[in-house]
Every structure is written in C-alpha cells, then in structure tokens.
Design a protein that fits this description.
Blueprint: E1 3-5, H1 19-28, E2 31-36, H2 41-53, E3 57-61, H3 73-85, E4 90-99, H4 105-121, E5 126-131, H5 134-143, E6 150-152, H6 159-167, E7 170-174, H7 184-191, E8 198-200, H8 222-232, H9 238-253
Parallel strand pairs: 1-2, 2-3, 3-4, 4-5, 5-6, 6-7, 7-8
Helix pairs in contact: 3-4
Length: 255
C-alpha cells in the first residue's frame, strides 16, 4: 500500500538531525510522498531549495495565522509574485486560514481572503487552517469563493460542516485526532465520509497520536492513522481504502 502525508512540516528544526534517514524510512514504509505547507513568506521561499533536496516532497506557499505579527501588507503582493514565478514548483496556497485563539481577526480575514484570491488567480487549491472558526471561514468563502478547492487541515467539525466543505470542493484532512477515543464527534463524522473526500496527514512534528503524547510526531505514523480509519469505517479491504485515499490526495494537489 502507498500513502501520502498531505500535511507535514518536514522543514522544521525538529527534524534537522534525522531528516534524510526519516524520509528514507517513510518511503520504505509506504509513505512515499509529503506535502509541506508554507507558513510565512520567508519560509515559503526557502521551501524551493528544500524541495530540490528532497524529491518526495511537494510544497505550498502561504501565510499562517499563527505568525500573524510577521505578516506585513507587502507580503501578500510578494507572495503572489513568488508563487507566480514558481508556479510549477507549488501544489497549493497555504497554510492559511482563521483562528479564534489569535487576536486581530480582521487582519486574519484580510490575509486569508487575499490568499484565496491568489489561489484562484494561479489555479491552485488551498490548505486551510481552522480553530473555532468554521463559521468565519464560511463567511470568507461566501465573499471570496475558492475556485479550486483544497484541504481543510485537521478537520474536526460537524457532519453538516463536513458536507459544506465537500460541496465547496474541499477534502478533509484526517490525522492523529481520530486515534483518541475522546474525540468521539470527529471520529463519528469521519467514519461517515466517503474516502474520496478524505486525505491522510500527520501535521508533523505536532499533533502526536494517542499513546505517543510528548513525542515528536513524524510521517511514519501515517499507517497508524490509516489503520484507525479502517477500524472506524469497518473496512476489511485495506488496499481499496488506501488507494482511494492516495488518489484523493493526488487529485486535489495534482501530484
């Protein structure tokens, strides 16, 4: 079986000591490709060199709300120019989105909607971050409709919200959250969604799986997430489910 980690930050410092061996170990385990999002203008630019060093890696460019203080207004124009100049190197715009745990939602919304516009102009999907903000994201989508879908990273909403995103052309990111029995709502929703609307992810080095709290998360755990998903869906044909998830990710990112 083959897998793609649709969301991992392999360029982060946590992997500096073992990055090359980790990627080789992942490929040997069937996790053969990785999507690494952008989080700031400077880091997005650095991902071009990162991608050239690690062929299994695919990259995106974006301004993450966590680093709101770093994002200046000129960065949006520079992000567009950079993405346009490197369009053949990018699979998405993002990680972008809205996060109620971070102040200045007005600036977040402005940055998010302008990144939707960039994605639309460059014919690219989006990688969308959310935290207590599905309602705000829906408002942004109404004002500025994404034309090429994308992935709702670490989806944890309701079934109604899941169907809304799918209708907008988005896949739902499924990661370590579903390995926690206490995440009953998310587990129940994901169990009801057809695999062609799902993609696997780890968000490495964050979001460790149940039983691995306190550890650095890695894409090596993708098969573990997959096995839990199989159990939730009561799927006996793992090969068919794995192929559907692989094809889902390949489709949205054109990889």
């Amino acid at each position: 079986m083959k897998f793609i980690d649709s969301h991992c930050h392999l360029d982060f410092n946590e992997f500096d000591a073992e990055r090359e061996s980790l990627i080789k170990a992942c490929v040997a385990k069937g996790v053969e490709r990785f999507v690494v999002p952008g989080i700031s203008l400077a880091q997005s630019k650095q991902l071009i060199k990162f991608k050239s060093k690690y062929p299994p890696v695919h990259i995106a460019a974006g301004l993450h709300p966590y680093f709101l203080d770093e994002h200046k207004e000129p960065h949006l124009a520079q992000l567009f120019d950079f993405a346009k100049a490197n369009i053949n190197q990018l699979v998405a715009i993002g990680e972008c989105g809205l996060d109620r745990s971070i102040e200045d939602l007005e600036k977040q919304t402005r940055l998010f909607e302008q990144q939707i516009t960039i994605a639309n102009e460059l014919n690219l999907p989006l990688i969308v971050h959310h935290r207590q903000s599905h309602d705000l994201i829906a408002q942004s989508f109404k004002r500025c409709k994404p034309k090429y879908g994308g992935v709702i990273h670490a989806f944890s909403g309701s079934l109604q919200q899941a169907h809304y995103y799918i209708k907008q052309g988005f896949k739902l990111g499924v990661g370590g959250v579903i390995t926690y029995e206490r995440a009953a709502k998310t587990r129940n929703v994901i169990a009801q969604i057809a695999p062609q609307h799902l993609v696997l992810e780890t968000d490495s080095p964050s979001m460790p799986l149940s039983g691995h709290q306190g550890e650095i998360n890695t894409p090596l755990h993708i098969p573990n997430v997959f096995n839990v998903l199989c159990n939730l869906k009561h799927s006996s044909n793992k090969e068919v489910l794995a192929k559907a998830l692989y094809d889902s990710c390949s489709e949205v990112f054109c990889i």
